[in-house]
Amino acid sequence: MYGGWGENKMQDLDSVDMKILNMLIEDGKTTLKEIAEEVGLSTSGVRRRIKNLEDEEVLKGYTAKVDPEKAGYDVAAFLNIDVKSSEVRRVAGILKRCTGVCEIHKTTGNHGLIAKVRAKDRGSISEFVEDRVSTYEGVKDVDITMTMETYKEDLLNI
């Protein structure tokens, strides 16, 4: 990650790269011309920089930002999943394909995984945990933390 929080695959991110990334984070539909005018490069120079950011997987794609609550996914929860260490990758792979699962992280401590999920209501989250997650081979226990209110929810704001 950039900013000294870990290994940075691309060591030469400069202020222009950061400005390009911030503009694309703010609006993925920003045109090359608009970016070029803002950063003081030609459109071909911007295109080359974006291609480099994509090649280095600093920029991994373009997506629409969806307001989960307006889309009917009003409830967020974090699942602390106690899973056998030999089954962590397999369980994470299954969770990656589940609708409503926003994030999955391998963790330290008592649990092997933590997953952030979004659903229409609390009952849907309980059902997802009881009928699916807790039945996966290697899962010993699942602790659910339901959110009360969300103040900020972004992929990354740099």
UniProtKB/TrEMBL annotation:
GO terms for biological process: response to amino acid. Gene3D superfamilies: 3.30.70.920, Winged helix-like DNA-binding domain superfamily/Winged helix DNA-binding domain (1.10.10.10). InterPro entries: ArsR-like_HTH, AsnC-type_HTH_dom, Dimeric_a/b-barrel, Tscrpt_reg_AsnC-like, Tscrpt_reg_AsnC/Lrp_C, WH-like_DNA-bd_sf, WH_DNA-bd_sf. It comes from the Archaea. Residues 13-74 form the HTH asnC-type domain. One of its GO terms (molecular function) is sequence-specific DNA binding. The keyword Transcription regulation applies. One of its GO terms (cellular component) is cytosol. The keyword Transcription regulation applies. Keywords: DNA-binding, Transcription, Transcription regulation. This is HTH asnC-type domain-containing protein. It comes from candidate division MSBL1 archaeon SCGC-AAA382C18.
